[in-house]
């Protein structure tokens, strides 16, 4: 009886572990990467999801509506942050356009305008004047645009984005980073839908740390 009881206790102890493993369909090193050093988030009371993107990336353009739909399903404890990719001088201009739209409080409108200009209208937006024309067409004076676009605060924001993407170990765009700890790429996660599924999985794991 003692031997039988010991066996039953061993099985009982093993079952929760086996069940936990079965509930985890995504594995570190396969569908996502654990960053060697965690990057601080903007709000420790929430689970932060960062999207590193580029306006000229067709994959980012097609990912955008999927992300918007996914975000509508997220709880209030999830904070989404966009980080424009910067690894070329022209991309720095586009990053400045992103933060300028934020500063001018017309981001929701201009985000779509810039994406469509580069992906549907095939505009390269290789200089300040070309970018300014988009803002002017959407109600911003050129003087106001230029002042904000060339401000020190915008330059600092872009510098920070560039530093963050290095710490996130970004390999391309779009990529997601959950809570400064986990990097998700479409290649590893199995496409855009897979990226969002892995992100949801990691959010649940991180949510327990908020309690």
Description:
- The chain has helices spanning 2-22, 58-72, 89-103, 107-119, 128-136, 142-149, 152-167, 186-189, 192-207, and strands at residues 33-34, 47-53, 78-84, 175-178, 182-185.
- It has 211 residues and is of the alpha+beta class.
- The chain has a 5-stranded mixed sheet with strand order 1-5-4-2-3, sandwiched between helices.
- β4 (175-178) and β5 form a beta hairpin.
- α3 packs antiparallel against α4 (107-119).
Q: If you average the pLDDT, what whole number results?
A: 91
Query: Strand-and-helix sequence, N→C?
Result: HEEHEHHHHHEEHH
Question: What quaternary form is this?
Answer: single chain
Proportion of residues in helical segments: 55-70%
Briefly note the structural class of the backbone: alpha+beta
Overall radius of gyration: 21 Å
Share of β-strand residues:
5-15%
Q: What is the terminal separation in angstroms?
A: 42 Å
Q: Please tally the helical runs, counting DSSP H or I stretches of 4 or more residues.
A: 9
Tally of extended strands?
Answer: 5
Could you give a short account of the major beta sheet? Answer: 5 strands, mixed
Q: Please give the order of strands in the largest beta sheet.
A: 1-5-4-2-3
Low-confidence stretches: 4-21
Shape: globular
List the helices and strands and how they pair.
Blueprint: H1 2-22, E1 33-34, E2 47-53, H2 58-72, E3 78-84, H3 89-103, H4 107-119, H5 128-136, H6 142-149, H7 152-167, E4 175-178, E5 182-185, H8 186-189, H9 192-207
Parallel strand pairs: 2-3
Antiparallel strand pairs: 1-5, 2-4, 4-5
Helix pairs in contact: 3-4, 3-7
